[in-house]
Write a structure and sequence with these properties.
The complex is a heterodimer of chains A (357) and B (484).
Chain A lengths: L5 H28 L6 E8 H4 L5 H12 L1 E8 L2 H15 L3 E5 L1 H10 L26 E13 L22 E4 L5 H14 L1 H14 E5 L2 H9 L5 E5 L2 H8 L5 E3 L7 E8 L7 H11 L2 H11 L2 E2 L9 H10 L12 H19 L1
Parallel strand pairs in A: 1-2, 1-3, 5-6, 5-7
Antiparallel strand pairs in A: 3-9, 4-7, 4-8, 4-9, 4-10
Helix pairs in contact in A: 4-5, 6-7, 7-13
Chain B lengths: L2 H24 L7 H33 L5 H16 L2 H11 L7 H37 L4 H29 L3 H6 L7 H10 L4 H20 L21 H27 L2 H5 L1 H31 L4 H9 L5 H10 L7 H28 L2 H9 L4 H30 L2 H6 L6 H9 L4 H34 L1
Classes of the chains: A alpha/beta (357), B mainly alpha (484).
Amino acid sequence: MAFGGKTLRHFVIYLILVYLVLFLAVLNRESKKESFEVSQSVRVFAYSSFTSITGPGPKLKALFELSCNCRLEFVEGNDAGMLLQRLKLESESLGADLVIGFDQYDLQKALGEHKWRKLDFSNLNIEPEVRPALSNNYFVPYDWGVLGFIARKGELKLTPKKLDDLLHSEFTRKIALQDPRSSSPGMQFLFWVIKSKGEEEGLRFIQKMFDQAHSYSPSWSLSYGLFQKKQASLVYSYLTSPLYHELIENDPSYEALSFAEPLAIQYEFLGIPEYCKQCELAEKFVNLMLSPEGQKILMEKNFMFPVLKDVKKGTPFQALNDKLIKDKSLMSFEIPSNTDIDRLLLRWSELRRGEKN
Amino acid sequence: MNALDRFRAFLVLFLLFPFLVLIFYFRFSFDLSWPEFWWAFKNSFSQAILSAFFAMIFGFFVALGFFCIKKKWLRATLEILALLPNFLPTLFTLVAIFNFVDPFPSGTFGIVIVHIFIYFGLVAVLLANQIESRLGGLVEQAWVDGISRFQFYTKVFFPLMKKDLLGVFLFVLVMCFSSFSVPLVAGGGRGTTLEVLIYEKMRLSTDWGAAVFLSFIQTLIVFAISLLAYRGRGQIADRAVSFQWLRSRAGLLLLICLLSAFVLGYAQGIVDGFLQMSFFYELRFALFKQFFGTIALGLLTGLLTFVLLFCVVWAQPEAWFQNFLRSYFAPSTALTGFAFLMIGPNEGVWPWLKIPIVIVLLSLTSLFRMSWESSIQALHSQRMMGQVLGASRWQIFRQIEFPQLIGRASFLAGLAALWASGDFAISRILAHKDLSLAMMTETLLSSYRISQASILSFFVFLVGVSLFLFFIGAGRVLSRKLSL
């Protein structure tokens, strides 16, 4: 029997039917969910762990839609860097009304490449650590985290208390770090060292750290995964990371380490593009995120500190704050210029290249 | 220009589409640090060549190990397990290797070890499949003729298989050349490759012109390497190899060692994941949706691949076209993804269409090099005979090429479907939300949930393997029906 007969036709029809049925099953669920009548739709652009089912996005969306008579749609990007790229490439056609997820190292680039609406949230009752981050006119911080080293309790013979302790032979090839070129915590570590030691001394330290690092992962999740799988004794992460294990997994075996140097802070910002279509709704959503209820959701789902005062009161986040952060100096807030970032990354790359060449 | 030429030109334009879009939007920028470029190039090239070479050696011995297994179900199970490291998120593979190779040597050697681990199984499965289909009858004939084992390998095996070996080698080379995470984690100072440079230009410097230029150079380099490929012919025997020269117990032992190292590390994560199964109850609706999403993406990718492979057959034979397919290498994953992001809408049904198209664009020439070219060429004499007897192009296609190539096309379409079901890199760029289980796995990994991600990744693998087997099965059924 040759090709072109009934057999092939049946085969093709069968495959098409299988595909269509599966595809319709997926679409059907979505259309059912969205069949209620709404007058407007607001598009929020955010990174994947924010919008995912385990992140704060879905809960905030449900809460917002209860009162806005509108539909909130998340548009997902991989991370803040990729968010910016998509904004650049798709700009107005993307129709973003709100963008969530920049950190302080993205702000200069975001300001240089796009126009943003002015936002004034200076009256918010916020944590003192966050106040300086409100000084710009366009971006508002909605949560923040302090970065440092995380270890498993009782595993280390020597507990590092300052940066130089990391150079001890006990930690040779035992520290999981991130590549600053592709990871935001990686960039935080680079700036932490530079701010603590000065540029030249800091880079010399970074060079020595190449021997101590187990690996430089392209993302935080990969480095943290290596640490969780006991490939490394220390990982550079958020001081709130042990809280996740304790609260969600009932596993108290992780601890955040205290360091003598002022610790690095990561602020997460949001901004409303100038070309927004549902600007008022976007601002309403920002208000929700910055309300005590929204802040609580962000804290519990993102495992970051809330920017509003008193939200973490009576929670394990407050206890962690009191133990590791309160009365300690933290790195002061600044928005580094693109030139500074490019120069430091170039020097980091050169060191890495020269070291192993 | 006749209709066939126009068809060839259309196929070439389709493959070049991402480059055309990128060059149209960004133009080339030559603002590069050349020492940095050479450094990255040297790293990419050395790690890719060494990785491909050793993955071929390991994969070859493991392929011979497969021939020792008489029970079909056991061999099929081991083949599927051998594909596991190639399929899972890099983290799981890295953890298994770090457990096994301690202390782990960072640098080129480290990258090569990880790549061998990732690709040996794929190489073994491909080679075993090709050895069987190409050499089945010749092995017995050579034995009857009384040649030695050495003569068999030098006079029969390598001359007949060199094209296939080179095809698989180039396939692994290209994959290693464009590897991103592995060189960064395992490479020490050698972690800067061309792919990392492209990413850096694109994401940090937002210098898209330079990123496109780098990608273009990368394509040219692979193009040049691929042009070295030999043309060769084989015959389709499609029968089991039953000769001791092509069996290796040492290969089987090697397979078991490598797999045990991997499976033990991975299984531990799965056990931890099972202990937290209640977590998945909360996600049941999302899981259900994304299960179908995975199947939809895999099926569409497989179908598109199947159709395009036969489009390639229809457009044969033409030397320049063949050379192009053999040598062309698509731009980096991220660049191709972004090229499609810029074209047309990205809402509703569009990501469902764009993701399979991008996966097919990225994998088609690799599949061609891997075994499609040699399968087409094996039919050369039959095609010539058909022409001499006055058969039309359509008759040759439907009565000679399609019935004999359908099995191989289904195998390759199944492989494409397997990759599609495990993809999250392209989907993350083109989709506005999690569409598949693989994307969900990646999301879980980025929110501390490594155990849950382990178990979900295994589920993704099972779905991928089901799709792979579905295509192979469909191909066999169709092939049987056509031969009635």
